[in-house]
Design brief:
The protein is of the alpha+beta class. Helix content is 42%, strand content 16%. The protein is built from 13 helices and 14 strands. The strands form four sheets. The chain has a five-stranded mixed β-sheet with strand order 6-5-4-8-7. It has a four-stranded mixed β-sheet with strand order 9-12-13-14, sandwiched between helices. Strands 1-3-2 form a three-stranded antiparallel β-sheet, with helices on both faces. Strand 10 and strand 11 form a beta hairpin. The longest helix is centred in the last third of the chain and has 16 residues, at 271-286.
Length: 322
């Protein structure tokens, strides 16, 4: 089959404005099993799971965390029954920041979910789940799914995830209205369960004032330093403007700012935002404040981050900003 002809047939059959397509939908549009096998062989499509495909040209341009979300959506398109999505899958469906976590599809229930939940990328959790610990979400495409609540989702991620990843999820959940007291109650109702001790540590570290994954990771690094802990998002007045820097030590006149999750999360700073940040820094510097600015790549070296902060923290006030 000629490649150009195959490409045109695929484009004609693909549902409008959809990244994913099922084999059933493509077949209804005349792009049957044989043509789909040829498209897969020629690298025109990628199979995310049995019966769900994505055009390869589009897939290559998605960021890793975007690909994880679409793998989850592929499961939604093919699973039979009404699974309760949980753990990191529930976090993704709730729209929480999920950084460096497993892309597997997590479902919770008393028994296995029928259909594609038996696939290798599905993690089935057979554990108690109270009716109050799940809810129905309506997704952007109008589909409705069952997920664990924000609070139960945080607790589950805290039980099995790495510390910083779980804190990032917890920070965002609390920022979006999740209640810490409900999380603590859920933990207390799990005596002897796997990961409870880890979850308690995560809950003690959660702070909903952190507004991005980078701020959460920065806060955890600072928490390990033998210095007074900073105030988060403290309001500072400079002229007739109020500013809310990420981390403030008022006695030391020190501010630590995290400059955006540009590489790893999809909200890069515009030129106007950068210019506004520089004006803000200039006004505060004129009032004696000193700055340490961090980027995502800096967080890979916590020792150096601590060194830079400590150098400014202990320096005389007349020292130039970092």
């Amino acid at each position: 089959m000629e490649r150009l002809h195959l490409v045109r047939r695929l484009e004609h059959a693909w549902p409008d404005k959809a990244l994913l397509a099922t084999s059933a939908v493509l077949a209804e549009s005349g792009f049957g099993e044989r043509a789909l096998a040829e498209a897969l062989k020629r690298g025109l499509v990628c199979r995310l799971r049995r019966g769900v495909y994505v055009q390869a040209a589009q897939w290559r341009f998605l960021k890793p965390w975007e690909q994880d979300k679409f793998r989850l959506h592929a499961h939604l398109l093919t699973v039979r029954g009404d699974p309760v999505y949980s753990y990191f899958s529930a976090a993704r469906l709730h729209g929480l920041y999920v950084w460096n976590c497993s892309a597997g599809v997590h479902v919770t229930g008393k028994s296995a979910v029928s259909g594609t939940s038996n696939a290798k990328d599905v993690v089935a959790h057979h554990e108690p789940l109270a009716e109050s610990e799940s809810e129905q979400l309506t997704l952007r495409d109008g589909n409705r799914v069952l997920v664990t609540t924000l609070e139960r989702t945080v607790v589950d991620c805290a039980r099995v995830g790495a510390f910083s990843q779980a804190v990032i999820i917890g920070d965002h959940a609390v920022h979006n209205g999740a209640r810490l007291e409900v999380m603590w109650a859920a933990i207390e109702a799990m005596p002897g369960r796997r990961g409870v001790r880890k979850a308690r540590r995560v809950l003690r570290a959660i702070d909903g004032r952190s507004e991005s994954p980078g701020e959460s990771r920065t806060r955890l690094i600072i928490a390990e330093m033998p210095i007074e802990q900073p105030e988060l998002q403290k309001e500072l007045l400079a002229g007739d403007r109020i500013y809310r820097p990420d981390f403030v030590w008022e006695k030391q006149k020190l501010i630590v700012e995290f400059d955006g999750d540009i590489k790893y999360f999809a909200y890069g700073r515009t030129a106007d935002v950068i210019l506004d940040e520089r004006k803000r820094e200039k006004r505060l510097t004129e009032l004696g404040w000193r700055f340490v600015r961090l980027e995502w790549k800096d967080l890979a070296n916590p020792v150096d981050v601590k060194r830079r902060i400590m150098a400014r923290y202990a320096a005389p006030f007349w020292s130039a900003a970092a």
